């Protein structure tokens, strides 16, 4: 269903902090043209915590409409409120999203048994295929491989975005979930090794600014052309690192604006635009990745 480079899409904002739907639709066309494998809208990189439910759904709907079947769309439907996660999943199922990306409940700090109950309730209430999303550095909650294995028995749970930063999770998840369960890295700098160990691709921040390059990197990796994949990874590694010089998505939005992909680098409060030291670091990484000239 999905493989390769999946972009964790930013949500463009105007200088006043409102959603810039014109830029959003242009980004969708850009990713189609560049060969991105799928678009994941309204995840962490999309600033989902700061958008209202109405805005959240409007963004996903706009991406689905603009994609128009040319590229699969994954909609962020996670919440630390199980009822809200169900509402989002149902709404996205109706609008034609290919799958949902369901982050673990943040702040609540649920047990593994509670996580099983949370995801079971979502799948019982909605027919939308679900990709679990484990990012303990953001949520304070770690979805363990044994728990994922039990959730994989649910027909609607088709994969996981694993962003714990622990490569050993790949073999642990394969042992618990089987070969058909989709495994995506949520860490750009580790994603090539993640695929080498048996993963299916990456849900990528870097793909916002280097979509063609990330698509080529993972096409090479998934077809076994490791010399080409490793060369591409060396070229992009400074960019993977620079895009996290400040809280995501502050640096990547600045980079997208610098490349002319969006009109404004503005995130929504409580995030603020990238400071000058960060801009210098990101600009240098864009040069090393050959995305802009040294000018």
UniProtKB/TrEMBL annotation:
GO biological process: diaminopimelate biosynthetic process; lysine biosynthetic process via diaminopimelate
Catalytic activity: L-aspartate 4-semialdehyde + pyruvate = (2S,4S)-4-hydroxy-2,3,4,5-tetrahydrodipicolinate + H2O + H(+)
MF terms (GO), sorted A to Z: 4-hydroxy-tetrahydrodipicolinate synthase activity
Keywords, in A-Z order: Amino-acid biosynthesis, Cytoplasm, Diaminopimelate biosynthesis, Lyase, Lysine biosynthesis, Schiff base
Gene Ontology cellular-component terms listed: cytosol
Binding positions (pyruvate): 45, 203
Subcellular location: Cytoplasm
Site, Part of a proton relay during catalysis: residue positions: 44, 107
Organism domain of life: Bacteria
Main location: cytoplasm
EC annotation from Swiss-Prot or TrEMBL: 4.3.3.7
Active-site positions on this chain: 133 (proton donor/acceptor), 161 (schiff-base intermediate with substrate)
Pathway in which the depicted protein is active: Amino-acid biosynthesis; L-lysine biosynthesis via DAP pathway; (S)-tetrahydrodipicolinate from L-aspartate: step 3/4
Pfam family, one: DHDPS
UniProt-listed HAMAP family: DapA
Family to which the UniProt record says this protein belongs: Belongs to the DapA family.
Function (record text): Catalyzes the condensation of (S)-aspartate-beta-semialdehyde [(S)-ASA] and pyruvate to 4-hydroxy-tetrahydrodipicolinate (HTPA).
Known partners and oligomeric status: Homotetramer; dimer of dimers.
UniProt-recorded name of the protein: 4-hydroxy-tetrahydrodipicolinate synthase
Origin species: Zobellella denitrificans
């Amino acid at each position: 269903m999905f493989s390769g480079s999946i972009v964790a899409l930013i949500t463009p904002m105007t200088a006043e902090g409102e959603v810039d739907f014109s830029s959003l639709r242009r980004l969708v066309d850009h990713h189609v043209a560049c060969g991105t494998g799928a678009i994941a809208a309204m995840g962490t990189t999309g600033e989902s915590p700061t958008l209202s439910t109405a805005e959240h759904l409007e963004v996903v709907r706009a991406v689905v409409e603009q994609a128009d079947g040319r590229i699969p769309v994954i909609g962020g439907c996670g919440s630390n409120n199980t009822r809200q996660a169900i509402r989002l999943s149902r709404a996205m199922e109706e609008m034609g999203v290919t799958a949902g990306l369901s982050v673990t409940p943040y702040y609540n700090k649920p047990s593994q048994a509670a996580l099983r109950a949370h995801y079971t309730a979502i799948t019982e209430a909605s027919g939308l295929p679900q990709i679990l999303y484990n990012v303990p550095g953001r949520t304070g909650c770690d979805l363990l491989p044994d728990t994922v294995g039990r959730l994989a028995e649910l027909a609607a749970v088709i994969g996981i975005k694993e962003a714990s930063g622990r490569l050993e999770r790949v073999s642990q998840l394969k042992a618990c979930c089987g070969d058909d369960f989709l495994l995506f890295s949520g860490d750009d700098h580790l994603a090539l090794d993640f695929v080498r160990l048996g993963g299916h691709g990456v849900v990528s921040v870097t793909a916002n600014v280097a979509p063609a390059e990330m698509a080529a990197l993972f096409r090479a990796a998934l077809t076994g052309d490791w010399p080409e994949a490793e060369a591409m990874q060396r070229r992009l590694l400074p960019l993977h690192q620079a895009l996290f010089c400040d809280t995501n998505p502050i640096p990547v939005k600045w980079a997208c604006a610098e490349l002319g992909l969006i009109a404004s680098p503005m995130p929504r409060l409580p995030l603020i635009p990238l400071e000058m030291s960060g801009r210098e670091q990101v600009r240098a990484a864009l040069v090393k990745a050959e995305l802009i000239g040294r000018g």
